Structures are given as C-alpha cells and as structure tokens.
Amino acid sequence: MISSLKRFLIGRPLKSTELGEQKLNKKKALAILSSDALSSVAYGPEQILIVLAAVGAAAFWYSLPLAVGVLILLVALILSYRQIIFAYPHGGGAYMVSKNNLGVTPGLIAGGSLLVDYILTVAVSVSAGTDALTSAFPALHAHHVTIAILFVVLLTILNLRGVTESASILAYPVYLFVVALLILIGAGGYKILTGQVSPELSAPIGTPVAGLSLFLLMKAFASGSSALTGVEAISNAIPNFKEPAPSNAAKTLMAMGGLLGILFSGIVLLGYFYGIAPSEEVTVVSQIAEDVFGRNYLYYFIQGTTALILILAANTGYSAFPLLAVNLAKDKFIPRIFTMRGDRLGYSNGIISLGFLSILLIIAFKGRTEQLIPLYAVGVFIPFTLSQTGMIVKWFRERPKGWLPKLLINATGALICFSVTLIFFLTKFSQIWPIIIFIPLMISMFRKIRRHYDAIAEELRVSAWEKALPVQGNIIIIPIAGITRVVENSLNYAQSLSPQQIIAVHVSFNKEDQTKLEEKWENWQTGVRLVTLYSLRRSIIQPLTKFIDSVERRTAEANYQITVLIPEFIPKKGWHHILHNQSSLLIRTALLHRRNVVVTTVPYHLKK
C-alpha cells in the first residue's frame, strides 16, 4: 500500500540513463530559479517606503535615488555571478568560490548561510503567499498555519517528482505574474504620461524633508536590497541545465536580471507618482493596481498572480538547496545521504529535509515569518560578499587573459555587498543578531561531522591483505560498499566459517565507479569472487535480492544454506550511527522472510 501511494504521488522510478531528460531548458529554468528574485518585487519597493514613512510622505521621493542604488547593485551582482558560472561550471556558487579561494571556513560560512537562507525562503515565501490568500478570503485566516503547511507539502511532493515535471507545472504562474506586472506598469505609465494622474499626489523631487538622516537612508537602501535575494540561485543550480550548461545558465541569469530590473523600477516609479503610502492592511502592489484599474478583473488577476508567485518563490529553494547540500556532503561536512539521487533522479533527501525544516519554522513562528525577512536578507548578503571577494583573489592569483575588467566587476560587487551587510548590522541589529551566534554553531557542527568522517576513514583504511586458504562449506554472500576495514573484518569472519564459496557483491550506480572498484579488488587479491551489479534506478535492494534469488534457485537441489553477512560498524557515539548503515537495515528488512537465507550482521566496533 505504501509503495502504491509512493508511485501515485511521485511517479515511476527513472533509470539513471534518463538523467539527461531531467535537465532544464532556459525557459523552464528561468521560471523555476527566478521565482524567488522576481517575487521580491512584491515587497522590495514596499520595504523602502516603510522606512521612509517614519519621517512622512514628503520623503517618498527618495525612493527613486534609492531604487537606482539597488539597480546598480543588481547589475554588479548579475555580472559577478555570470563570471562565477563560467569559472565554476559544476555549481556550488558562493560555497565553492569561497572555499577554493578564501579557505574552508569562509566557504562553510557561505554554504551554511545559504542552506539556512533557502529554508527561510520556503518558510517566508509560503507564509507571505498564504497571507495574500487569507486576505482575499478572511474566513481562512484561522487556518493560516495549516494552509501554509499544506502548500509546503504540495511543493515538496511536486519537486520529488523531478525537476522537469515541477518546472512544467510551475512555469505558468511565474510567467503570468511577469505578464500581470508588465500590464500594470504599462497601464499605470500610460496614465501618468497622458496626465490622468494628478502631480499633487506625490511630493516634488528635491523637496526638503525635516528629520531625514543618513542613517535612515542607509536603512531604507538595505531594506530595498532585500529585493535581490535569490539572484545567486542559478549559480548553485548549473547541473540542472541542459548542455551547454554554463552558457544556458549565464543567459538565464541575464534574462532574470533584466526582468527583475524592469519590474522593480516600474513598481517604484508607479508608487511615487501615485503617491502610495505603505499600509499594514493593503500591500503597495495592491494599492497601485486598485488606483490603475479599480476593483475589476485585472485587479484580481494581479492579486492572484502575486499570491501565486509569493508561494512559488519557495521553489527556488527546492531547486538550489539540494544541489548545495550535495557539494557540502561530497566534502563530508554534512551526511553523505544528501548525495544520493531518488527514484525521480532528484536529490530527494535534500528536498525532504528542506520541506521538513520549513514546516518546523512555520509552526514555530505560527506562520508569521515577516520578522525573519531581515535575517533572510543578511543571510544572502554575507555569501554575496564572500563570493565576490573570492573571485577577486582568483583573478589576482590566476591572471587569465582579460582578467582586469573581471576583477573590477567583482571588486565593485564585493564593495557594495560588504557595505549593505554592514548597513544591515548597523540598522537592524536587533533583528539579525541571532546570526552572530548561529553561524559559529553551524560551522562547529560541519567540522564535527567532517572529523567524524575523517576518523571513520582512517579507522577503515585497509592494511596489507593476507591471502586466504581455500576452505569448504556453505555459500556466504557479503554485500559491500567498497574496500574498507569493515569489509576486511567480514571476509575474515566468513572464511572462518569454512564455506563452500564466498561471494562479495557490490551494487553500483555509476559505471566508472564500478570499474574502479573491480580494479582495486583485483589488486587487493583476497581470493574472494567479486560480483558487481549495475543499478539503473539507484536501488541497492532490488538488484541484490534478485542476485540472491538466482543463487538460491541454482543451489536449491543441493539444499545449500545461503548466509548473507552484512558488514556493519559501530561508531564510538550512538548518534553517529544514523550517518551510516542505512543500507544494512534496508537489506535485512528486504531479506527477512527468505526461507533458505540466513541474514546476519558482522559488527566492527571502532577503537575507543
């Protein structure tokens, strides 16, 4: 029943050879990976006005020069991340750039900040979209948290079905939102140009404002810069693009930057000329749409697509989080299970973890996650600053042809991003102080996991092997993941039982890895036969059980007893056990009811 439900929700397992079919073209990638950045148009301009409102409506004209500053930062970031895409075509973005050029600790700060930021992206976006929905239907307000959780579950299931399938469904609302805002900007701009909007609605540019300070302007600029969250997602998700992946990713990034610049500028201009003031009850976009169209179908079309884009902005996190987790897991800073592809060729452990953690955040804050927006924004600008600084070091170190213009672009980006980060700490410290505590704790956790893996690797490194003597007895099958001390221990134990034959079985998901293991095994000279099984659908259990069944059938007449010895090691600390031996439990469960098969584990206790 569970298997049938899984197939219904997620779909049939895909073969590894179908991975190329799961890559995104530029149109789908733009929708999936730009939804976070584009959705920020719905609240970025409003954040500027909220700060300026503290000194009165006369200060709203300052939103125009502040918007120009945000656009300059946008251009610097787009050009900088375009260079990162070509410099690091396998993805990883700020984490890879920082780690390779600034060191492991800056890399962990960048990678950890982005992991947390993607969790915040999902929680904040879904909560904001739910707010828009419950505002339109007040009767649903009491169920705000439940609705938000259902949206997260729906997005998680959709992403578990595969990148291509989720992109095919989610692309339409994103492009509808873009069309809706372009219509709004076009119609609003036409009314302004034809004199249908009274100039008395807005204070003239240059109007002196009493009480306006540089501190307040810096705070407004930092708040408006929250519109740039999500710009980095494409550089993390390059492996999801069709070939040539770097070129397609760079073109998608430029298209996203162009759209974001147009929409952001348009909303800021309309907000100024229509004299829009921020309100707790009605968003700035809603006020502009009502002034331009009235309460007709176009108004509701804009509101509906805005609510959708706010919810779907979470999908940027689902696209980028698993790929970033893969890079951290490959470097052994988080559990290796994040490197495993699921039935639909996506990194399902990352997708599920993101959904689960986002739900916890929504429950903890009761769906009111707007207070996390400053933390969410500064969590992006720290990796922005580190990645640009890392690229500066790279150009100085390598000095390729044409490196000086690239250096200037990254230096400009680094300087502005560092300034914005400082502004956040100066103006919003009361809201973002937890990051000062959280980042060191996160790095400590990463390093602890890495030390654990390093200790395990050292403990399991194989020493010189003594050839086994031929013995007689029953058939013993030993599933192996590689050549380690645990496997060596299991082989020694198996040979002590005097079996008729010992067969080591390895299930591989990659032909290249399979060939390497076969060569290593031959050089190891154990005297034990190795059988390698290639799994198209990345399942260990199915090919292993089929092999055991075939051995059982061939030996049925001789009435042999088949023993499956599962190598398993016991770490020094109990909680570390969850990082290892997942396959052991699955194999034992799958073989539990085989009549002629005895299943047991061979424990290997790490030295105290």
Instruction: Supply the CATH architecture of the largest domain.
Output: Up-down Bundle
What would the principal axes of the Cα set say about the shape?
A: elongated
End-to-end CA span: 44 Å
Strand content: 5-15%
Number of helices: 23
Rg calc = 28 Å
Instruction: Give the helix proportion (percent range).
Output: 55-70%
For the report, how would you describe the main beta sheet? 5 strands, parallel
Total beta strands: 5
Encode the helix/strand succession as letters. Answer: HHHHHHHHHHHHHHHHHHHEHEHEHEHE
CATH class of the largest domain: Mainly Alpha
Low-confidence stretches: 464-473
Keywords: Membrane, Transmembrane, Transmembrane helix
GO molecular function: transmembrane transporter activity
Transmembrane segments: 48-81, 102-128, 140-158, 170-190, 210-231, 252-277, 297-326, 347-367, 373-395, 407-426, 432-449
Subcellular location: Membrane
Offer a few descriptive terms.
608 residues, alpha/beta, Amino acid/polyamine transporter I, Rossmann fold, 2 domains, 63% helix, elongated, membrane, AA/rel_permease1, transmembrane transporter activity
Tell me about this structure.
The protein is of the alpha/beta class and 608 residues long. It has two domains: 22-424, Up-down Bundle (Amino acid/polyamine transporter I); 473-605, Rossmann fold. Helix content is 63%, strand content 6%. It is built from 23 helices and five strands. It has helices spanning 2-10, 26-39, 44-52, 63-87, 93-102, 104-136, 144-160, 163-193, 214-224, 233-236, 245-273, 284-293, 297-312, 314-330, 348-364, 373-398, 403-427, 429-432, 434-460, 485-496, 511-524, 541-554, 582-590, and strands spanning 475-480, 501-508, 529-534, 562-570, 597-605. It has a five-stranded parallel beta sheet with strand order 3-2-1-4-5, with helices on both faces. Helix 8 runs parallel beside helix 11 (245-273). It is elongated, with a radius of gyration of 28 Å.
